[in-house]
Design brief:
The protein has helices spanning 2-18, 23-49, 64-77, 80-88, 95-120, 142-169, 176-202, 215-241, 248-277, 285-292, 301-319, 321-324, 327-345, 369-397. The chain has 405 residues and is mostly helical. The longest helix is centred in the middle third of the chain and has 30 residues, at 248-277. The two termini are 14 Å apart. This is Polysulfide reductase NrfD.
């Protein structure tokens, strides 16, 4: 009964915190709400008219929704780069950022599930994904495994921070024997969610563009580059607009993680390009379409030739110690790297897998305004959720809200 009373007080205080703030805070939340409403309107059109209002066809059946889903799985998995040093290796420098990283993982996973719902056409078919009720082809279906690991990882990233914040709200220290086993499990689970997503593509024999042994490891490398890069940008914003003290050495350590992951990701990219173009076969046509166009079809060229230079430039800037320690250059590099990997793991990975089709036909894909509206609405939802979680967590950690006995 006492815990229920504390929980009710926490909910009440949290609502008070997230509904009050500066003018900039209210403008930010109002902007996100407006974008979400636009996204909901676009989604209502999709519900009424079906997926025909999107740019997807029977030839290219995965587009902007699944591209963002794939990328965000990596962003969610990147929280492990803060969880492991903090909870397992006891590195106090990461402790300031770990709750922010886990909040970002929760927001990313919510967006992942929202993109899956959008891609399925509507929520009325979601019952198929409920174990024991839906028509699951378990354990053969990789999609089944993907649903299980995503929801499991979401559960871990909600419960562990909630327990820690719940204890801190009461003025007590969290017991390590309670949360450390879950933290260790989340480390392996984070690797699992991204590998299973990679296996989902690798297992499609009719799509040779994805039949690559490096796909799984490269998923992890790009995730551990883009995710912590986003965390650095978020920490920079928090440092500027709140009293939460994020030390320079914390950001510098995360930047080192980003640098190593970006370098490994770039090496794997070169390896893939060598495999595709040094001794090309007819299975290399998807890669040719992506990088050079095929039979006059060049829709993806501007995207990929924006991503590759950004990726290389950001990695080079991060590699030099002196440049990386200049925070203005660091933030710019992280932004460029985030955008580059979003393009590369989005349009650069998903769409070329369908082009050309099994019979050699080329049907290009271009997202419609409805798709873009729904996508922006889901990203706004993620930002909205993260803002609420971060504002509550920061105020608890600063002691501004605590349980009044």
């Amino acid at each position: 009964m006492g815990r229920l009373k504390v929980f009710k007080s926490l909910v009440k205080d949290s609502l008070d915190v997230i509904t009050h703030g500066s003018l900039r805070y209210h403008i930010w939340m109002a902007s996100l709400t407006l974008i979400m409403l636009i996204g909901m309107y676009c989604y209502s059109i999709q519900l009424e008219e079906g997926l025909s209002v999107t740019g997807m066809t029977d030839r290219v059946s995965w587009g902007l929704y699944i591209s963002n889903f794939t990328f965000l799985v990596g962003v969610a998995a990147a929280a492990v780069m803060l969880v492991m040093p903090t909870y397992v290796l006891k590195d106090i420098d990461f402790k300031q950022a770990v709750l922010i990283g886990e909040g970002l993982a929760v927001a990313a996973l919510i967006m992942c599930l929202a993109f899956v719902v959008a891609d399925m056409g509507g929520p009325s078919v979601l019952w198929h994904m409920i174990p024991g009720i839906g028509v699951f082809n378990f354990p053969n279906s990789m999609l089944t495994w993907d649903v299980i690991v995503l929801n499991g990882y979401l559960f871990l990233n909600i419960t562990i921070p909630f327990y820690i914040l719940f204890r801190h709200y009461q003025g007590k220290e969290a017991k390590s024997k309670v949360y450390v086993p879950g933290a260790i499990l989340s480390v392996f689970w984070a690797v699992g969610i991204h590998l299973v997503t990679a296996f989902l593509y690798q297992g499609l024999q009719a799509r040779p563009f994805w039949n690559n042994a490096l796909l799984g490891p490269r998923f992890l490398a790009s995730a551990f580059a883009a995710g912590p890069a986003l965390i650095i940008l978020v920490l920079a914003i928090i440092r500027n607009f709140s009293a939460f003290n994020i030390q320079d050495k914390t950001i510098k350590k995360i930047a080192l993680v980003v640098t190593v992951a970006a370098q490994i990701n770039l090496i794997m990219l070169v390896s893939e390009l060598f495999k595709e173009f040094y001794a090309p076969t007819h299975h290399s046509e998807s890669a040719y379409y992506l990088f050079f166009g095929l039979h006059g079809k060049t829709a993806l060229l501007p995207w990929i030739w924006t991503a590759i230079p950004l990726n290389v430039l950001a990695t080079v800037l991060l590699t030099f110690h002196k440049l990386r320690n200049n925070f203005k250059i660091l933030y710019l590099s992280c932004f460029m790297l985030f955008i580059a990997i979003w393009i590369e793991k989005g349009f650069g990975l998903i769409v070329p897998g369908f082009i050309p089709g099994p019979y050699g036909k080329i049907a290009e894909y271009t997202p419609t305004g409805i798709e873009i509206g729904v996508t922006l609405g889901i990203w706004a939802l993620g930002a909205f959720v993260f803002t609420i979680l971060a504002k509550t967590a920061i105020n608890i950690e600063l002691g501004k809200i605590k349980f009044k006995k």
